[in-house]
C-alpha cells in the first residue's frame, strides 16, 4: 500500500509501459474479463465493450465482457469482488454500484471500499431530462414544472429501479423546483425507455447520448442537460444551471480490480487503460454518449469516489430509500 501511494499520476503511464515489458510478472497470461454489472445494451455494457477491444490489443490477450446484472448492479459487483486478485478480472464500476448502493441497500454483498482496488477513472456521461409523447404540451423545462404544479403527482417519470441514479437524479431536479411526480420504476434502462416511448410514462432522466437519440427519432423532447456546460452533442439544449438549478449529474464509469491485487499489476493495468482509451473507436463511442475519455490515477479515483458517496448518500437519506 505504501508503494501504491507513492505512484504519481505522471509516473503511471511510464511505469505501466515498463511493466508491460517485464515477463517476470507473468501478467497477463490468459484471457481477461471485464464484468459489467448491468444488462446488454446498457451504458455500462456499451462502455465495457468499447474498451475491451483496444485493451486486448495493448495487453496482447483476449478481453471478454461478462454481463452479471441484477440487484442494482450488486450481483456483478459481488462476483467481481470474489474473483481471484490476479488482475485477470476487471470490474467496470459506476456511480450506482460504487456510490449509491451502500446507502440504499440494508444488506450489501460487497463493500465498494474494502473489496475493490481502484485502477482508473474512465468517463463522465452527463444526464438529460426528457418528456415523452404522452405529453406533447411539454416542450421546455418551464412547461414541465408548470404542468407538475397544476397537478401534483399527476405526472409520472420512469427509472431503471428504486434507489437508482435515474430516480435520485429526477428527484434532485424535481424537489428544488417545488414539484412532485409519480415514480414508476423498471428493472432496467431499456424497459424504462420503452415505457416512455409507448406513452405509458411521461418523463425520465437518462444518459444524454440515449436522450439525444430518442429525440432524433421523434416523439420525445429534450428539456435540459445536467452538465456543467452545454453539450456539443445537443448544443441547443439548455443546462439545468441556465434554468436556475445548479446541478451537474453524471453516470460516471471507472475500472476496479479485486482488493489485494498486487500494486505492480494495478500500475500495469492503469498504463494499459490509458493507451486503450486513446483508441479512435473507444473515443468515438464515448463521445456518442456525450462523454470523453478521462483516465487518471488510482489515488484520484479513490478520492473522487469518496466525495461521490457523500453527495449521493445525502440524497438517499433525504428520500429515506431502503431496499432489502
From TrEMBL:
This is Bug family tripartite tricarboxylate transporter substrate binding protein. Residues 1-26 form the signal peptide. The lineage of its organism: Bacteria, Pseudomonadati, Pseudomonadota, Alphaproteobacteria, Acetobacterales. Pfam families: TctC. Keywords: Signal. Belongs to the UPF0065 (bug) family.
